[in-house]
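Thread: "does anyone have the structure for this chain?"

Original post by V.I.:
We have the sequence but no experimental structure in hand. Need at least a predicted one for the grant figures.
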Amino acid sequence: MQLFDGRIAYPEITATLQRRDAAVFMSTVIITNCTNRKRLGGQPPLELCTAQNQSLAATAATWIQQVKARTFTRPAESLYTGRSVQDAKWVARKLDAELMFASTGLGLIGGEQPCPSYNLTVAAEPNSIRPWLARMGLTPSDWWDAVNNHWQRPNPLATLAKRRDINRILIALSANYIDLVANDLEQIATDDRSKLRFFTSRPGIERLPKQFRSLAMPYDDRLESSRFAGTRADFPQRAMRHFVELTNASTNPVSADYQAVSAAMSALPLVGTIKRRRASDEEVKALMIEAWDAQKGSSSRLLRYLRDDALVACEQSRFRGLWLELKSRSMLRSIV
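Reply from O.Q.:
Generated one for you, tokens below.
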């Protein structure tokens, strides 16, 4: 089941939301952010080349042409990896809901949408588009609008919200991706806002347009003392999963949902601040090598080992680079 039918490489046959078969009933949609962790399938990822004086429209058009020229390797729900994706997929299965991704490179796409391998993000990563946007005096939302306009589906979130066959939209996005879709959210009609529930961090709530902040569920650090503990990067999706297990995503008014989450958080203790020491890249890699076999080379387990057992501070993008380096070494040793 796809909201946008056909290959994204051919916008002339890419269906808009309104053209989806009206006979198919769908009451709930899950929207989560894409991830920098992707199954690339051995193909070098597509990267954006920005000309210093090129306009937003021209840069977006160039990017879309690059995307069209690439082979589409995997559906979105298989391309993106990590805990956040797994929790979003769990929620979608639990509710028999449509899973969609807010993608910096591709706009709003369905989980079954074929995608090329690419590296482009709005997060604070090496392949982030934020520095170029800042130099141009633009915002992440300007990029989102340009990309979706090129796919001939402007304001896809607002279009989704006005659908009468959809009565609930659960949106789990990091603060950076709230920035990405902010303009689109502003286009949602007042009467359609009650369908939405947001799951994000405290900074994410502050970055929501003011009229949507009351729709953000009041999750905080107390979630880390529950069985839904995890990393900062997957906090929105973990909160959404907790919410679905708590309420089964009923059609309760927002006030009832807000009160249910507040009560659940009140029942949890605050997690004490853990002091983690800083370590050099070489020391972090040595710790990872030491624990590699015990953690079966799992990136998520090794990160938790560093933070919880070794008590070493390691930001996720930094860890990712070091882990990929060690994984490459491991693969080379297995070949030799």
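V.I.: this helps a lot. Residues 281-335 form one domain.
O.Q.: and The chain has two domains: 17-266, 281-335.
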